[in-house]
Amino acid sequence: MDFLIPFFTDDFLGKPAWVWLTFVGIVIALLAFDLGVLHKDDKEIGVRESLLLSAGYISVALLFGAWVWWFLGAQSGMDYYTGFMIEKSLSMDNVFVIALIFSFFAIPRQYQHRVLGSLLSPSPHDTADLAALARRSRCRPGRAVVDAGHSTSPQLGCV
Question: Quick check: pTM over 0.70?
Fold first, then answer.
């Protein structure tokens, strides 16, 4: 087991690999809990339940940020909270787009959570999941274009 120690302690994107693995583990555990335990049945999610779930997930994120601040220092903590606030702000437009898509396709409220879950965990046995997988595969070339330089960003913004 000593051969694994360098793997977990080596830097990956400026932080030890075990920090990233912890973060990914928390995200996967929360997704599994949400999709596999809380919402395994098709039911309509009310406003109260939605607000409670959001508050719970935001609390987990804020607690993780406090741990980052305490364990990795103020600069890393501030970087985390800055990224969290930016992503939270940017995710709000996704809520409106998803609402428009759901209303356009007339997806019943009790199935909306399942549809969102299928976008997060594609299964090759489901055609809707295959469409989501195809959509994700189109994002990779776009990301490569953006990574190539800033001169492409205005053109992509117009699209």
Answer: no
